[in-house]
Amino acid sequence: MTEVVITGIGQTEVGEHWDISLRNLALRAIQAALNDASKGGATPPPRPQALFVGNMFAPNLSNQAHLGALITDYAGLDGIEAVTVEAAGASGGAALRQGYLAVASGMVDVALVLGVEKFTDKVGSEVEEAVSTTSDSDFEAVQGMTTTAQAALLMKRYMHENNVSVNGFAGFALTAHANAVANKNAMFRKAIKTETYAKAEMVSDPLNMFDMAPNADGAAALVLTRRDLLPSDFQRRLVKIAGSASSADTLALHDRKDMLFFDTAQISADKAMRQAGIVLDQISFFEYHDAFSIYAALSVEAVGFAIKGQGWKLAEDGSIGLKGKIPCATMGGMKARGFPGGAAGVYQAVEAVIQLRGQAEANQIPNAKYGLIQSLGGPASTAISHILSILD
Amino acid sequence: MTEVVITGIGQTEVGEHWDISLRNLALRAIQAALNDASKGGATPPPRPQALFVGNMFAPNLSNQAHLGALITDYAGLDGIEAVTVEAAGASGGAALRQGYLAVASGMVDVALVLGVEKFTDKVGSEVEEAVSTTSDSDFEAVQGMTTTAQAALLMKRYMHENNVSVNGFAGFALTAHANAVANKNAMFRKAIKTETYAKAEMVSDPLNMFDMAPNADGAAALVLTRRDLLPSDFQRRLVKIAGSASSADTLALHDRKDMLFFDTAQISADKAMRQAGIVLDQISFFEYHDAFSIYAALSVEAVGFAIKGQGWKLAEDGSIGLKGKIPCATMGGMKARGFPGGAAGVYQAVEAVIQLRGQAEANQIPNAKYGLIQSLGGPASTAISHILSILD
Predict the structure, then answer these.
(1) How many inter-chain contacts (A to B, CB under 8 Å) are there?
(2) Mean pLDDT of chain A
(3) Do B63 and A132 touch (CB under 8 A)?
(4) What residue in A sits closest to B71 (Cα-Cα)?
């Protein structure tokens, strides 16, 4: 099998970018990634031949579809192949997967993977309407079910089944906020205490403000190529995509056999690990999709870091901390780095590369060798898992 | 290079499907394609592992994003990989290309490619608003430029530069309508005369009702696999994807060097032909993207069937007819089969397979060996070309 490597990474700050348009936000991340790729050796890197854009809501929130062609134009890449990839909140992971498949196929030598999203130009009701398109429009959204209300129902059921109190979820937010302090691209660089969590404003009972990630603007980009195409003078420590897998499940919760188990998170993580030839214990860190704290709890269970119903304990006992057994959300996760929709999965990859290169500074996981990143659409209606690793 | 073959095709009628939802329309096409694939031999075909959905407007016009997961669920394919691919009007071609890359990569053994679109549940102004998201929102759409007005400007400039009258474009509509008569899935199965065209209602001067394809509902699907994975008892005449390429250009016309030449249509067709190892003369038929008659004229010029400024003559002198030098829109094209948005590119592939299998009956091109299909997004802001051929 062809080895696909990541030669460049780029990201913008995550936050409210009212002063910059969607296309320019995308351009910043692309330029940063191409610039980063050019630092690997003396030979200038070849021009990308394809652009895969992960985006959820530009047609609804920015009146702009057809991002592939638009962004290649603004990035000075006219003529190359370009397409937008959508799988709700997993759009970033989906763009990475399509870029990976294109390079692995041998048809594309150098691919750019971009995630970009602008949430904050619009008011809450418009955003809520857009977000609701990701759930089942005929059976859930039409009944007034928002994704937040859906997560709240999952959380309540989880608390009931497993005899957990709301405060049992605090550790997810505390860890995320602690890890974001040193990440200069994070939206919320402030640690919080258990009391802050306990007193937080209720959003949808039992889910409070700290149980959900903030919708934000941001863009992140990756340069992918095949290992055998690298110039001989490429010197930087290289990260490869050792495993890649994707799986889909029902949108509507009522169609699940067990709504408290994320089947697709398990299926895609298992498949990616098999491809990488590793077992769970070899994973150095896990960038989960903590759009909601209940998603984080169900994700660590699905992947196998905790048994069913016990995932919350990993947050409570410090296991997901930077020095814990399985560090998660190492740069702040969606909760504190922020949730830039279709860019989120690409941010995860950028952060994993930083960890694997050993450039994470205060947030560095010692001897990080294999990173699992997982991008979810809705309540794991889509799950896309990638294993990134240091190239031997 | 791995050979990727099409083992199954499916399509619904193109038209106004007010009685059937988006997901069920998709399901019909998928079931037809899987059923068709099962007729190739005695061994039941393996379950698809991935679904690539081409769609433009479900989030805007059906309040439904995240189609990948939704449709796998309804198709009884839970757990497989699924994603939506968007490149404006080229979304269908883009889905085919992603499916092709996935199978060619060796990561996916059997892929389903689906195009689905529902336009007609909404009124004209809502559709127009959605369609406008495919053009440059900051520089064209915001000025009130619709895609139809944009095509009218192109047509007017073409007429001026090349000294052609409006009636010079009649041949495109006449050919399309003539070819749709025998296609039971076509929207308009009625031949028209030159006088009908000449008297047609003006839409955007000089573009009349017969210069544009009707927005319609429809779904089409393909089953792709690798040749070496076919069961030994597979007997049906097989069609392979001999060439596949995609190219992007500016959305806004004012950024083009020459707005009367479709660069991307040339680039992607040339690349696909090179991959297939053929030259222009070997192409038996051309399914162009005749969303507007001016697109058809510019497409035959870009690909090389006519010199610049002379493409309209191929329509006038009968060269694009079923018995002509280069038959185009052989089943009615977008003009008369109808334009089901993100499904259009997949309909082209289904129709090309029918031609290459020799199943086109009254519309059969004798000895069809290589078919070129081309899916455009906007005025060739994206162009995706595929060469389908009979497997030797």
Answers:
(1) 211
(2) 96
(3) yes
(4) A250
Closest Cα in chain B to A105: B105
pLDDT (tens digit, 9 = 90+) per residue, A71-83?
999 999 999 999 9
Contact B73 A249 (CB under 8 A): yes
Average pLDDT, integer, range A160-171: 97
**Given an 8 Å threshold on Cβ–Cβ distance, is A135 in contact with B244?**
no
Whether A42 shows a pLDDT value over 90: the answer reads no
Sign of the C-alpha dihedral computed for residues A20, A180, A325 and A210 taken in this order: negative
A288/chain B closest Cα distance in angstroms: 19
Give the gap in angstroms from C-alpha B68 to the nearest C-alpha of chain A. 7
| Chain segment A320-363, per-residue pLDDT in tens | 999 999 999 999 999 999 999 999 999 999 999 999 999 999 99
Inspect the interface and report whether the beta carbons of B138 and A107 lie closer than 8 Å: no
Q: Tens digit of pLDDT for each residue in B332-372?
A: 999 999 999 999 999 999 999 999 999 999 999 999 999 99
User: What is the pairing mode between strands B370-377 and B218-226?
Assistant: unpaired
Beta bridge partners of B15: B217
Nearest CA in chain B to A385: B81
A44 has a pLDDT exceeding 80? no
Identify all chain A residues contacting B101, using CB atoms and an 8 Å cutoff: 98, 101-102, 105, 107-108
Identify which of B35-39, B184-188, B237-241 has the greatest average pLDDT.
B184-188
CB contact under 8 Å between A82 and B106, yes or no, is no
What ipTM does this complex have?
A: 0.97
What pLDDT shows up at residue B46?
Answer: 84
- Write down the pLDDT at residue A235: 77
Residue of B nearest to A384 (CA): B81
Task: Give the angle subtended at the CA of B268 by the CAs of B207 and A38, to the nearest 5°.
Answer: 125
Nearest to B134 among A1, A65, A263 (CB): A65
Report the DSSP pairing between strands B110-117 and B50-54: parallel
Chain A residue numbers touching B72 (CB-CB < 8 A): 248
